[in-house]
Amino acid sequence: MTDPIPTLSLELAPGYEFSADPGRIDAARVHHWLSTDAYWALGRPRDTQDRALAGSLNYGVYDRARGDQVAYARVVTDRATFAWLCDVYVHPSVRGRGIGTAFVAAVRDTLLPYGLRRVMLATQDAHGVYEKLGFRGLEQPERWMALIPGE
Prior knowledge:
The protein is an alpha+beta fold. It is built from 4 helices and 6 strands; from the N terminus they run E-E-H-H-E-E-E-H-E-H.
């Protein structure tokens, strides 16, 4: 039996709301952000992004006044032992306000009830944000491997 997908909403920062409701995700907006402005997903096809959303827990941050989505993250997980936090994106218009840090903290907190042994992520340039929230570099990176088809 699988635990229900979280759908909570909460005030993230003044004027901004965090939501774990997958029905609120603006898939077209998220695809545009990631495929045109995120170094790890540049050129990602829309059908690939849609499959990724369908197989993940999805989170958003929304401007309360306008209702627009301003941030996105997804988590790939078995909801028992492991999770991978990925595709974390905060729109440039709201960066620098602490929204990204609060957003990742809220995502992390939705995962706590699962009792996961490990939550992984990869970042090129946001180590400081994640370190504030308890993430750290791998203690034994030599144990980890990756299969990258086509390489």
